[in-house]
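User: Calcium/sodium antiporter, Pseudotabrizicola algicola:
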Amino acid sequence: MTYLLFCIGLVALFLGGEYLVRGASNIARHFNLSPMVIGLTIVGFGTSAPELLVSIQAAMAGQPAIAIGNVLGSNVANILLILGTSAAIAALMIPLRKVWRDLGVMVVATAALWIMLLDGSISRLDGVILLAGLAVFMGMAFFLGKEEPDLDAEPPSSMPISIAQTIGGLIVLVIGARLLVDSATEIARTFGVSEAVIGLTVVAVGTSLPELATSVIAAFRKQTEIAVGNVIGSNIFNIFSILGITALILPIPADPRFASADMPWVAGTALLLVLFAVLLKGIPRLAGVALLAIYAGYVALIMA
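Assistant: Predicted structure for Calcium/sodium antiporter:
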């Protein structure tokens, strides 16, 4: 039964991702927002919903290692696994002139989280600071994300249909992620895997599958700006929103290993994405394969 729920969750994720990308793209066009902005905000926030639910539930259940490991592992998986897979399907363009602020916010958020973890907990004050950062990021994204409408483009679906597609896709994504995470965690525990490792791998990958489904589908549809924006936005939301809200509800104790062993990976992958954007203006297909190889090495290392 556990394996059946795992498969159902996987199918639900990809169906939800298809409708989310379609609906969000149409909403962006109605408001003359660029696909990058809609990926950074609506899609990025929506696909981070599973991480939020899992982290809050884990913190309240007395499992802080899963709450923090979920976010750190998801941010690593977003860049190495998700962008790697998407780039292997279709080379991703990263328009630096559109995303330099957002890449900067991602790096600052990562650095702030690392500093917060050094004292062994994420306090309620830390949560307030993280949520303030989220408010600033959202304001920047919407006010600076307008673009001229393309008069020659095919008219988007009506707003009610677009909203229904987006909300429906999000609901299916969350349900699918919940089924997959629960079943995958149960399978992992039968092998005696620790909570920290479960959070960094099984739960992190499981809650990142909405991002994977959304970015892969966007890559197949040649909407690479949504694929890239989804990952950048998700990484920012994971830190600012998920840990911010969770810490505001309940301060989160942090295992020392997160600051010493795991944050270097989170920071390193964030800087790697910045280098791709600055030096290559995107992620070629061969680089996508290399990212997948690095992710395989990362998982092998922390599972050892």
